[in-house]
Design brief:
This protein is α/β, with parallel strands linked by helices. It is built from five helices and six strands. Helix 1 runs parallel beside helix 2 and helix 3 crosses helix 4.
Length: 214
Amino acid sequence: MSRTTVHVLRHGEVYNPNQILYGRLPEFHLSELGVQMAKAAAEALAERDVTYVVASPLERAQETAVPISAEFGLETAADTRLIESANFFEGKNVSVGDGSFRNPRNWWVLRDPITPSWGEPYLAIAQRMFAALQAARVAAEGHEAVCVSHQLPIWTLRRYVEKRRLWHDPRRRQCGLASLTSFRFEDSRVVGIEYSEPAAHLVAMSKNANAKGA
């Protein structure tokens, strides 16, 4: 029997002074604090048996992977299946009370929270993330892998594996900045999920702990 662990890491804080929902937009990089969060994640993994590192192609994810790949002397692979979810409100300000949600012309987009109507279907997110998870397991079989992704895809993946309904209250996601959601496998079967926040002390300093488009 092969035992493998795949750690799915949310990227660190992003520099986003205009507070827009950046989604899949390019040129959104880690803030200085976000770089420190990535280093904290790397330190937490330093004693693990990591043999494969892969990340979403977006800059913030690739930058979060840098200290981890350096720790283990590995190259960072890219997997588009780990990318942030598509969202109608990408590039817009969605702050409660003064953002795009207040505009009646956008209300039709919000009609269905279960699919959801404003973006990539939860099931599509779950299936692509699960495929990426399994690909990382195969690449690191018998060892450990790190996949760097984004809050909504990671949380959707976890709910999918735990066989819970995929639509949910975004305020209740257990997926902090630079957090690790670790899937333990026996052969191809998930036998356990663990969650940790190695950068919690830095997240407490962040003004963007629930960063938009994360």
